[in-house]
């Protein structure tokens, strides 16, 4: 029996189609302990996420972490859950719908755009199968992580190629590695901050918070730290900020080893104690609001700053489905489709040629 999936539904007269797969991290199906346990088991078992010797990590993960953390994490998810569901599913779904509509109006030929999650549902395998059934013979993958990291972007690549490696007919593949310095992305971030300041006034400090990774990843050659720094610099320049008006730090560390510094929570403690009155926080590494922004940044770190002596704290939401964000993502996709419209041809003529050589359909 063949290890590769068959393509018995192939038709020579099928219209050419480009498939776009937007990928974000993922979320539990429900804000309860069993769902969180399943999600964390998949997420934390990925060797891209935790680079520890597998047998030892299996014992730690299943013997300790998955016994303790799911109940606590489920309570945090319940605090941000909406009537529509998890923000990190609801928002990317809306982004996907709007990007699909935008691409349909500017790209020659047929484009099918679907959403997938690296962990949880809808899975990358489900997303790729949906695109296959819709006739996608060219595939463009956009991980919704502006800055590249092996812990995120590369993990998406691993799973996409694992799934495609099971196929007999592999589509043409393009993979967007990052967009950390894309002018439209930077301008959208700047516009969102300016709009917030137009309503609430300016802070004493603008804190740019990015998700952390272990420092050893940087030392091993992961470019994430460098790309984060470039995003921060470009955003500050676009906003016209002086060096003492903004700061960049890292959140969401896990475990006991050293992660990228400075840490967000310690920075806020120091600022509160030093008499910094108002802080605004923006998270330019998150394309959509999620547990890490809505609970950790907006709630936990607000408390940290206020309890340390600060007086006012604002979280500026992620770009989510803002129009300028949708425009930036759509134009990024269009640029990476360059030349593919030249592959489009007449399905009827293709079928006639195939039938001349004995094809039935």
From TrEMBL:
InterPro entries: Ferrochelatase, Ferrochelatase_AS, Ferrochelatase_C, Ferrochelatase_N. Fe(2+) binds at residues 211, 292. HAMAP family: Ferrochelatase. Pathway: Porphyrin-containing compound metabolism; protoheme biosynthesis; protoheme from protoporphyrin-IX: step 1/1. Keywords: Cytoplasm, Heme biosynthesis, Iron, Lyase, Metal-binding, Porphyrin biosynthesis. Catalyzes the ferrous insertion into protoporphyrin IX. Its main location: cytoplasm. GO terms for cellular component: cytoplasm. Gene3D superfamilies: 3.40.50.1400. One of its GO terms (molecular function) is metal ion binding. Belongs to the ferrochelatase family. Its EC number is 4.98.1.1. It is found in: Cytoplasm. It comes from the Bacteria. It catalyses: Fe-coproporphyrin III + 2 H(+) = coproporphyrin III + Fe(2+); heme b + 2 H(+) = protoporphyrin IX + Fe(2+). PANTHER family: FERROCHELATASE (PTHR11108), FERROCHELATASE, MITOCHONDRIAL (PTHR11108:SF1). This is Ferrochelatase. It is an enzyme of class 4 (lyase). GO terms for biological process: heme biosynthetic process. CDD domains: Ferrochelatase_C, Ferrochelatase_N.
